[in-house]
Automatic annotation (TrEMBL):
The keyword Mitochondrion does not apply. One of its GO terms (molecular function) is zinc ion binding. It comes from the Bacteria. InterPro entries: HNH, HNH_nuc, NA-targeting_endonuclease, RNA-guided_IscB-like, RRXRR_dom. Keywords: Endonuclease, Hydrolase, Nuclease. Pfam families: HNH (PF01844), RRXRR (PF14239). Residues 185-236 form the HNH nuclease domain. This is HNH endonuclease.
Length: 433
């Protein structure tokens, strides 16, 4: 069984999803047209009776993946998974570095901007990296609700007590007395915790400093769990550059787990409550029991199937529709360092030249097939008359083992996509990846 195709009538009202074969016939006979690709939706060009059944939408919300499932009675009509972007913070940090180094480079004049601090203008403001993921969770639910006839919405959310996760015995006033209780600064707490002793040479006294176990540039946090005490003799530029401190910390010090995911899920839960007050919400423990009763393997889309409230499954697709966002533009106007093969930094490059969108009829993110093979993927960049191709999992597709580039003359274009990669893959392939 294949995933169903979403259908709307000629007035824009949602109908029951149909089988892919029926959708192909309707499109072939010019009785329908394609109106959406994510998810794939057709619109009828003639009148229909509009017969509808009870239908449910299950959503496994998350920080990295969103599981989606549409069920009706004892059938799973659609199952899919959305992979969210995790590079927003890194890209913003890169942009910040470019802007801060402008005074040392010859670049075009940019008019000064003032009073553009969005955080002070908006209520309930979120950092861009968090807002991106929250908005995608909400928008994908709205996308499916818009092509389903009065679906019952079921969403799994997470609720975490970070203080309890750190200290299971905490209670009462303990919630008001954090790690820094009784200390004026973070440095004062770290020095006292380590007994004013260098954690590398084990010597007391002298000039002591706090050092990050995992560098901020590698994703380390500024919390007390990621800081240790070192003396001035060990905390040197040479030790930093040679990685001695980093290696010692990795071997000797156990870093506590990050709570970014738990914090995000707490934020997302409140936003989903406000965005979908009509939804039925549940938590992961209940989903685990439901999935076990249905005898389903652990995955985001199977969680969504269980969340939808289906009691037994007689028909279920043997494939999963994967969605992944594609970044089409390189927004930086200039480069801070020279690329490989250049002797000087690229300070005079123009935006259009650095964002090649199409070559010889092919465009960025086109879904293509390499001739005389079964390899299919998306164009992720151009190099003269060649291009780079990746599959939905981010792996390069090549013809030879020596080169990543594939000549455009050796490709057949299957379909055009905007900024979302979409691929329907077998469940067995999904489990392998």
């Amino acid at each position: 069984m294949q995933n169903r195709v979403f259908v709307i009538n000629k007035h824009g009202k949602a109908l029951m999803p149909c089988k892919p074969r029926k959708a192909r016939i309707l499109l072939r006979d010019d009785k329908a047209k394609v109106v959406k690709k994510e998810p794939f939706t057709i619109q009828l060009l003639y009148g229909s009776t509009g017969y509808k059944q009870d239908i449910s939408l299950g959503v496994d919300s998350g920080q990295r993946h969103i599981g989606l499932a549409v069920t009706s009675q004892d059938k799973v009509l659609f199952q899919g998974e959305v992979e969210l972007r995790q590079d927003v913070k890194k890209l913003l940090d890169t942009r910040r570095a470019y802007r801060q180094s402008r005074r040392n480079r010859k670049t075009r004049y940019r008019k000064a901007r003032f009073l553009n601090r969005i955080a002070k203008k908006k209520d309930n403001w979120l950092p861009p990296s968090v807002a991106s993921k929250v908005n995608h969770n909400i928008n994908w639910i709205k996308r499916l609700l818009s092509v389903l006839p009065k679906a019952d919405l079921h969403i799994e959310v997470g609720k975490f007590d970070m203080q309890k996760m750190k200290n299971p015995a905490i209670n009462g006033e303990g919630y008001q007395q954090g790690d820094l209780y009784g200390y004026q600064t973070v440095k004062q707490f770290v020095l006292a915790r380590d007994n004013y002793t260098c954690q590398v040479c084990k010597k007391q006294g002298g000039k002591l400093k706090t050092h990050h176990i995992i560098y901020r540039s590698f994703g380390g946090t500024n919390t007390v769990d990621n800081l240790i005490t070192v003396c001035a003799n060990c905390h040197t530029t040479r030790n930093h550059q040679t990685g001695i401190l980093a290696k010692w910390c990795k071997d000797k010090k156990k870093v506590s787990k990050s709570y970014k995911g738990a914090t995000f899920m707490n934020i997302l839960r409140r936003r989903l409550f406000l965005a979908f007050p009509q939804a039925k919400f549940q938590y992961g423990a209940w989903t685990t029991l439901q999935r076990a009763d249905l005898n389903l393997a652990k995955s985001h889309y199977n969680d969504a199937v269980a969340i939808s409230g289906i009691e037994q499954i007689k028909e279920k697709p043997n494939s999963v529709v994967m969605f992944k966002q594609f970044r089409k533009k390189k927004r930086s106007l200039h480069e801070a360092t020279a690329r490989k093969g250049r002797k000087t930094p690229n300070a005079m490059s123009k935006r259009n030249a650095k964002n090649t969108k199409y070559v010889r009829g092919f465009r960025l993110n086109d879904y293509v097939k390499i001739k005389n093979s079964n390899k299919k993927g998306y164009i992720c960049g151009f190099s003269n008359n060649n291009c780079y191709i990746k599959d939905i999992f981010g792996d390069y597709l090549t013809i030879s083992d020596r080169y990543k580039q594939v000549a455009l003359s050796k490709l057949d274009r299957l379909s055009h996509h905007n900024n979302w990669n979409k691929q329907e893959i077998n469940e067995n392939v999904y489990q392998m990846n």
